[in-house]
Amino acid sequence: MLSLYFSTFYRKKSGYFESIVYICANQIIQKMRVAILVDNRSRGAQYACEHGLSVYVEVADERYLFDTGQSDKFILNAQELGIELEKLDLAVISHGHYDHGGGLQQLLGIAPELRIACSPQADCRRFSVSTAMTKYSGLPEPEIVRQPNRIPVNGIVKISNHLTLFTLPHSAPSNPHLMRETTDGLVPDTFADEVFALLREDDKNVIFGGCTHHGLAQLFDFYTDIFKNKPITAFIGGLHLSGKSAEEIEAAAATAEKMHVGTWIINHCSGEEAIGVWQKRFGANPLSGFAGSITEI
User: Fold this and answer.
1) Which of 130, 63, 67 is nearest to 93 (CA)?
2) Is the dihedral of CA 271, 277, 278, 280 positive or negative?
3) pLDDT for 174
4) Pairwise CA distance, residues 66 & 54, whole Å
5) Which end of the chain is more exposed for a tag (fewer CB within 10 A), N or C?
6) At 281, phi and psi to the nearest 5?
7) Residue 72 Cα to chain centre, angstroms
8) What distance in Å separates the CA atoms of residue 255 and residue 249, rounded to the nearest whole number?
9) Where are the domains of the chain?
10) What is the biggest distance separating any 2 CA atoms in the chain, rounded to whole angstroms?
11) What are phi and psi of 27, to 5 degrees?
12) Which DSSP string do the residues of the chain spell out, in sequence order?
């Protein structure tokens, strides 16, 4: 079989981002490319890190950004990797927490006409509550997600042949310390606004989840029902298992086993203990979720 490789390199300093198309006989197979722009940890000193998440994906000729972290660090890391965020087709904000949409103002500063996809509820005021203090944890400027270019996501929204966004139909409070503001005061947050993404290329199905506040079981049930249990090639994002008990982590791992995911790229709020479990049980590479990491799928 004849295989030809066409590569375009974008280089800046020590970083690079590579685009590769494989042409085998008459069939074109294009790799999906994933770059972690922000995570709690980074692969090296040249990449900034912070408590947050931002993921850049190229699929076919489309370019997407999922979340922005909490500052402009995702822009700095994109520049280090040679990724041109000005050429994005769409940015998705998974939910209205500062560590997922806090950099949106900076993103619109370099791409003012960029379309933003998020839930209509992403602008609600959110708080983290403990016995010691009540801390605002929502978007720094909630009104920014109400801009004219917004694509509202409530249910299933097909963006292109390669990208479908969806919210889960049923939700329950996942953490007694995470609250949202209503006319009746603070109530437990159900994260009804949490947006997931399904990326498709050839026979590949890749799920992105910002924090997966609903839990893997609910996500998997919905995916199986709506998307007819198509094999999940990869899962990218947070599992919100940081601070959970060993029993809760094992229960999540048992669900993960049923999902038969090919590659796990988990980071951010997943927690060190859960990442260690995923490494042992599923061969997950912890480094693949660090800021500055690039994975081809």
Assistant:
1) 67
2) positive
3) 67
4) 6
5) N
6) -90, -30
7) 17
8) 10
9) 3-296
10) 66
11) -105, 130
12) --EEEEEEEEEETTEEEEEEEEEETTEEEE--EEEEEE-SSBSSTTS---SS-EEEEEETTEEEEE---SSSHHHHHHHHHT--GGG-SEEE--SS-HHHHTTHHHHHHH-TT--EEE-GGGGS-EEEE-SS-EEE-S-SSGGGGGSTTEEE-SSEEE-SSSEEEEE-S----S-TTEEEEETTEEEE---TT-EEEEEEETTEEEEEESS-TT-HHHHHHHHHHHSTT----EEEE----TT--HHHHHHHHHHHHHHT-SEEEE-GGG-HHHHHHHHHHH---GGGGSBT-EEE-
pLDDT of residue 21: 45
CATH of domain 3-296: 3.60.15.10
Taking each helix axis as running N to C, give the angle between helix 272-282 and helix 246-259, from 0 to 180 degrees, rounded to the nearest 10: 40
For the chain, how many residues are written? 297
Say if residues 216 and 256 touch (Cβ distance below 8 Å): yes
Tell me the DSSP string of 172-213.
--S-TTEEEEETTEEEE---TT-EEEEEEETTEEEEEESS-T
First vs last C-alpha separation in the chain? 21
Cα–Cα nearest to 118, from 146, 160, 89: 146
| Dihedral sign, Cα of residue 264, residue 268, residue 270, residue 273 | positive
| Of 165, 167, 7, 19, the residue nearest 87 (C-alpha) | 19
CB 277 within 8 A of CB 249: yes
Provide the 10 A C-beta neighbour count for residue 281. Answer: 14
Segment-wise mean pLDDT, segments of 10 residues, the chain, 297 residues:
32 44 48 96 97 97 97 98 98 97 97 96 94 93 88 97 93 81 93 95 95 94 89 97 95 96 97 96 95 97
Token pair of 94 as six digits:
């998974």
